[in-house]
């Protein structure tokens, strides 16, 4: 059974009133939704409320929901709309934003892609995070969605409401900038670490 077939089966089971299916959806996707929303605001209460409201809403409206074969994509699109609606409506304290003037995507080193713990890998990760933090806001968001939330380029385009080619171009430019940073910070003989790293985490 493919992931899409599995998601469709679970979603239809949830819509049919299966409590276990709803619990599976909740516990499997809550952490991804929470981590994503927290990249925009320090207000943990707001993030928790938005996610709880999302799950309550789909539970109440389950009989009227359309089918989906990509549950995480469905939930991400929904929570992102709610998050930006709340931020734009000033439903938060200014001090809870990383940037009180322009709420932006905040990518920090607390995110762990579980790449490894040896010295070379740790050095690679430090350079990677430093480089990612120097990217544009949309580039950072796409990098996060692709490598830490598991979305492909087409899915990212759907969540962000942009074209597939825009996502491809943005990611390509972001990765090009990251490679430049590695060339500057790593000895030539260590460039193999970079390519091995991207081979491990890239899933186009």
UniProtKB/TrEMBL annotation:
GO terms of biological process kind: DNA-templated transcription initiation
Gene3D superfamilies linked to this entry: 1.10.1740.10, Winged helix-like DNA-binding domain superfamily/Winged helix DNA-binding domain
A GO term, aspect molecular function: sigma factor activity
Annotated RNA polymerase sigma-70 region domain residues: 28-89
Taxonomic source organism: Draconibacterium aestuarii
Lineage top rank: taxon: Bacteria
InterPro entries associated with the record: RNA_pol_sigma-70-like, RNA_pol_sigma-70_dom, RNA_pol_sigma70_r2, RNA_pol_sigma70_r4_t2, RNA_pol_sigma_r2, RNA_pol_sigma_r3/r4-like, WH-like_DNA-bd_sf
N-terminal signal peptide: none
Stated name of the protein: Sigma-70 family RNA polymerase sigma factor
Keywords on record: Sigma factor, Transcription, Transcription regulation
RNA polymerase sigma factor 70 region 4 type domain mapped to chain residues: 132-177
Family: Belongs to the sigma-70 factor family. ECF subfamily.
Pfam families listed in its UniProt record: Sigma70_r2, Sigma70_r4_2
SUPFAM superfamilies: Sigma2 domain of RNA polymerase sigma factors, Sigma3 and sigma4 domains of RNA polymerase sigma factors
